[in-house]
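Sequence, structure tokens reproduced for absentees:
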Amino acid sequence: MKLSVKVCLAVLVAYFAAAMYGEVQYRIAQYRDVTPEYNVVDTESRYLPPSSEHWLGTDNLGRSVALRLVQGARIAFHVGIMTSLIAIPLGVVLGLFGGYFGGRVDSVVVWLCATVASMPGLLFILAISLVVGKGLPGVIAGIGLTTWVGTCRTVRAEVIKHSARAYVQAAKTLGYSPWRIMFAHILPNVAHIVLIQFSMRFPSAVSTEVFISFLGIGVQGEPSWGVMIDNARTRLWQGVWWEMAFTTAAIFALVLAFNHIADALRDHFDPALRSERG
């Protein structure tokens, strides 16, 4: 394993640990019915630059930027994982059906993909979010229901290729049902696509959530990274740079690590691509 991949994995482990810590903080505050520490207002400590007491400084209400970044990581992992649990199974099932059955079933699947792909993605997500309601559930539903097309098309192409192979033809000759062939024979052979799609979708979902929350339609009452950027941009002219800088750096590091892992996975599962890169 390359050193760069190991570093990216270490970065993702650190983010995951921060997200778990943030989740524990959030649950404890809910259980005790108190204002969580990252939302406690302390006007005497506002606009403090990074120091030994506040490693990443404080915002305009005296809240620790570090603690709020941790909660932002919690929300990012919620969005990345939950949207993947919606989009990837939907894309995989439709791709299996279209690729295996062909004919009218495939035509319907292709039509659905073309229809969803032709819609302006961000506006579609915003519309679903507004219907479901502002907040994290609306964001998750909007992103999850609009980002399955890429997975569906990739799985469909792989299933069409595998359907002509000997092991599938042998299963048909033995009288196995289409469901058994699709889910017990073909799906395990295209399962690596799910892993690759997850590594690609996760940073995309996080970036989308950040943008939606920046617009004020996403997460409400929680320190999403998008909310933090929106708050920080109005104070840059006052020389309060640390909230914007550290939030942007947190997003950049997470997206970069996932993108690098996705490239490594594609190289591993596609020897031809690896040989082309030399």
Summary: Residues 65-101 form the longest helix (37 residues). The chain has twelve helices and no strands. The two ends are 16 Å apart (CA to CA).
